[in-house]
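Box S2. Input/output pair 1.
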Amino acid sequence: MQTTQPTPMISRRRALRVLAATAASLALLPALPASAQAGRLSESVRLKHFNINKRSKLALDGYDPVSYHRSGGPKKGSKSRAVRYRGVIYRFANDANKEAFKKSPAKYEPAYGGWCAWAMREGSKTDVDPKSYLVIDDQLYVFYKGVWGNTRSDWIKLAKKNGNPALIKQADRGWDKFVG
């Protein structure tokens, strides 16, 4: 004769404590930064808010977004190696980069739709020099460099003091004002 053990019952109070603890733990997990959410935006939002040529829809002035992640830095892409991703056109220097982008576009798209990361900290869209950039935690950030200064240098100086995560969080809040 086989006896069965009664199944343990969890009290309602205990269940609520476990649920509350789980919710609190999840709240501590970092949210996906706005800088990495570009692929989730609708095509119309991307076309409205990305730093692209409004007629051709070309991003990064034709620079290959994958090349920023490779040794040798940014390279101009070719018209014959263009990819349209959710309304935005990207060009590539070679077929390998084109295929890498097609497999993981969110990894290679610039943060903040290609606007200056430094200016985005202040909630402002400022054009960039596509050769002024940083790749931080595998995310591309581009910066203004011109008559009014070099915001990449400003970012590096402030990051030494406050850390990149703090600056990125500020810029994420700025970007959210446009697309949030």
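Box S3. Input/output pair 2.
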Amino acid sequence: MRRPTERTGPSRWDFRPSHLSATAGHAATVMIVVAVDGSESSARAVRWAAEHASGVGASVVAVHALEEPVYAVPPMVAVSMGPLPPEVRAEIHATLERDWCAPLAEAGVEFRAVLVDGPPAAAIIRLAESEEADLVVVGSRGRGGFSELLLGSVSHQLAHHVGRPLVIVP
């Protein structure tokens, strides 16, 4: 009788470097989406993605979600400030690619840095689906602060809604 923890062979979702490769009926290229927000937690997620992607030859899409800024007017009124100006978006993209994705570049991993608009969890899910990601990687805590306590963290939302294998890096 096989114990529940015993493996009968590698699966497509086995992300140990010795098992992650082309298997019968599956493409050789593995796509990893990693969520990045500049926090220490997301830096650990990027390092995890870099280590595992380099071990298996995976490609990585590093994604940073941009929510439209709002101005809060008491009592309980929020006014949209409109989309970020192109020069601000360009600066954020440069920081994402140069600084936040540095571990991917240092590991020699093929990657793209992408800015997406919208609430982080929804934007990450949309991107993971459009990229047909084999794995989504996210840190356990981001820059959410107090609002994260009220609304639930991105990692928590992804755990319930992403529909793809998810690694939450502590």
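Caption for Box S3: Residues 40-56 form the longest helix (17 residues). The chain has six helices and seven strands.
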